[in-house]
Every structure is written in structure tokens, then in C-alpha cells.
Design brief:
The protein is an alpha+beta fold. The chain is 63% helix and 12% strand.
Length: 366
């Protein structure tokens, strides 16, 4: 398993570790043996041992040109997208390299290596500028291009990783900013209600402080992730509804039900409470006996559905229902932005205002 991961293109090294060095050595040893085998089968001159020696001595030329291209030219020119200049310089280097290889054949390899007599004679009789020069240049271009393509792919992988990390950091920063906007918004509204109860010296003020402390504890310590367990979010919602019941008493009809199994399901924190808060803020009228709010959460295996519906308050004449300011304020706007950042278009949010005001929020689990 470890050996196989060494050759993954997606595995990029930042330093020259022993694993990285071993990876390069194995790569070039494979080329060394491969070229010796191909030349042995392609030419009648020389044995496999001869060609192993030849390829061993010309390998430094291939290494020099290849590493110069991928570690010097490629980073400088690919970053500026000057690909034609990169190709031109690579071709020039390959041509110069072919001249060096041909010079080595005639002037050096025959005297340094114990080659077969047939191979030495063949090299000695051939003119300096032959068709093999072109072949050698193309051969060098093939070797360099293959490694350059691998390096270019790795550069793109590194670039995509950096881009993804930057987008993730940006997303997390925006989500935290929007969530921190939502918390003061909720706290401001609740403190106003608490202040009213204190002024009237209501005994409900103490219970409201307890519920508020539980909600603030959830907001501060349990909702710091992008997604939180559904059961935790619903428990926090239950505290909020209880807090509002303290405020309105039994006169306001509130129906709340949860269907399905919430275990191992997750949703963004503080989204549901925004929908419910909007219903309490704009739904109840001065006549609480005719006002109502219905809240339901359905947790299915592949889908989560949350529905909030409330009556609309009557106008001052008591005959017409007033238009609810549902799209104003920080609450719902922030919810939309957060859902867009987290899910993109993979969520449903339907807002309908007719005889009643209805919000349907749904997400599909992967």
C-alpha cells in the first residue's frame, strides 16, 4: 500500500525526503533499463550490457536537461502562461543535448567503455551530423516532455488545493461573520421582551432568564461548526419556543411537532430559530385568541423538512390582514446567505404569503 502511493500524481512533496528521492531513482532506473532493452532489440550492433553502459553514461545529460526544464523553466514560464517560449527553449535545449550526445558517442564513449567491436566501428564511421541527431533531439524531447507533463499536473493539483483551502477559509469566515450577526440580533429582541416583563414585575421574567441562558450557551459553545446535529438544533428550538410561550402565555396557540429519527443527521446551526423567530415577530396580532403558529420538523432518511406557518395580524380596522415585513431585517437575509454559502443551490427555501405566512425549508442528505 505504501509503495503504491509513492507513484500517485496527487502526492506532492514540499521537501526532498528519502521517499521523494527514492521515487526519482526508481523512475530513472526504469528509463535506463527500458532504453537499453529497446536499443538492444532495435540495433544489431552491441549487446544488452553494451547498451546498459551507454545509457548509464548518457543519463546525466538527460537528467540535466530534464531537471533544468521542470525546476527552472517550467515554474517561471508556466506561472506567466508563456508556454510558447517555454516550448522553444525546451526544443533548443534538446537540440544542444543531441549534439552533446553525438559528441560523446564519437569522442568519449568509444574510448571509455568496453563496447563491442561492431558498435565502436558503427559509431566511428557515421558522420557527425546524421539523421540520428534529429532522433536524439526528439528522444530527449520525449523524455523531458513526459516529466514536464507530470510536473505540470502536480502544479495544477497544488494550485487547486490552495484555491480550495482559500475558498474554505473564506466560507468559514463569512459563515462565522453571519452567525455572529445573527446572535446579537436574537439577543437584542429577547432582551427587549425581558425588559418589558421586568417593568411589569412579571414572575415570568425569571423563567425567561433561565431559557435565555440555555439558548445563549448553545449559541456560544455548541454551534461553532458549519453543521451541527439536528437533535441539538431542535432542542435549542424547543427552548426558544418555551421562552416565547412565557412571553405570550396560553392565549397564543402554538403547535410544535417533530417526526422521524434525528440521530446522525446534521444541519446548519441557528437556521431554524430564525424562521420561528420571524413567525413570532410578525405573526401574533393584538388579539392573540385568533393568532396561531404551527411548527413541524420531519426527519427522513434522505431528507429534512421544516415548516413554519403563522396567521397574519389584522389591520387597525380589524377586517384586512396586514402585509408582514418578512423580507426585512437581518434574520432571514442572513439565513439565505448562510444557506447559499453552505449548500449553493442544493437546498429548498419556499416563502409564501397569502392568507397565512408559510416557510418551507428542506435539504437532502447525501
Amino acid at each position: 500500500m505504501y509503495f503504491s502511493t509513492m507513484f500517485l500524481l496527487s502526492k506532492v512533496y514540499e521537501r526532498w525526503t528519502w521517499e521523494r528521492i527514492s521515487r526519482h531513482i526508481l523512475y530513472w532506473c526504469s528509463w535506463w533499463g527500458f532504453y537499453a532493452l529497446v536499443n538492444t532489440n532495435s540495433y544489431s550492433n552491441g549487446s544488452y550490457v553494451d547498451w546498459l553502459l551507454v545509457e548509464l553514461f548518457v543519463l546525466p545529460v538527460k537528467l540535466t536537461i530534464t531537471y533544468f526544464v521542470i525546476y527552472y523553466l517550467l515554474p517561471r514560464f508556466s506561472e506567466k502562461r508563456r508556454y510558447f517560449l517555454l516550448l522553444f527553449l525546451t526544443l533548443v535545449l534538446c537540440f544542444l543535448g543531441s549534439m552533446v550526445l553525438r559528441t560523446m558517442e564519437i569522442c568519449s564513449l568509444q574510448s571509455w567503455l568496453l563496447l563491442s567491436h561492431e558498435l565502436s566501428c558503427a559509431w566511428g564511421k557515421a558522420p557527425f551530423f546524421v539523421f540520428k541527431m534529429v532522433y536524439k533531439a526528439l528522444d530527449l524531447l520525449f523524455v523531458v516532455s513526459l516529466v514536464a507533463i507530470i510536473k505540470f499536473i502536480q502544479q495544477q493539483i497544488v494550485y487547486e488545493r490552495k484555491t480550495k483551502n482559500l475558498l474554505t477559509q473564506k466560507l468559514e469566515t463569512e459563515l462565522q461573520f453571519l452567525k455572529h450577526q445573527l446572535q446579537p440580533h436574537f439577543l437584542f429582541n429577547t432582551l427587549n421582551n425581558l425588559y418589558g416583563l421586568i417593568l411589569t414585575k412579571s414572575e415570568k421574567a425569571g423563567d425567561m432568564v433561565v431559557k435565555l441562558s440555555e439558548i445563549m450557551s448553545y449559541m456560544l459553545y455548541e454551534s461553532n461548526e458549519t453543521l451541527v446535529p439536528v437533535e441539538n438544533e431542535l432542542a435549542n428550538l424547543k427552548n426558544y419556543i418555551a421562552l416565547e410561550k412565557i412571553r405570550y402565555g396560553d392565549e397564543l396557540q402554538i403547535d410544535y411537532e417533530v417526526l422521524g429519527e434525528t440521530k446522525d443527521k446534521k444541519i446548519p446551526p441557528l437556521v431554524l430559530i430564525s424562521f420561528v423567530e420571524n413567525a413570532f415577530k410578525h405573526g401574533p396580532s393584538s388579539n392573540l385568541e385568533i393568532s396561531w403558529i404551527k411548527i413541524s420538523a420531519e426527519v427522513h432518511a434522505q431528507r429534512f423538512l421544516f415548516v413554519v406557518e403563522n396567521s397574519l395580524p389584522l389591520s387597525e380596522s380589524g377586517k384586512e390582514k396586514k402585509s408582514s415585513q418578512v423580507n426585512s431585517g437581518i434574520g432571514l437575509n442572513n439565513v439565505r446567505k448562510r444557506l447559499d454559502l453552505i449548500y449553493g443551490e442544493d437546498y429548498g427555501l419556499q416563502i409564501v404569503q397569502e392568507e397565512t405566512f408559510l416557510i418551507k425549508f428542506s435539504i437532502n442528505y447525501q
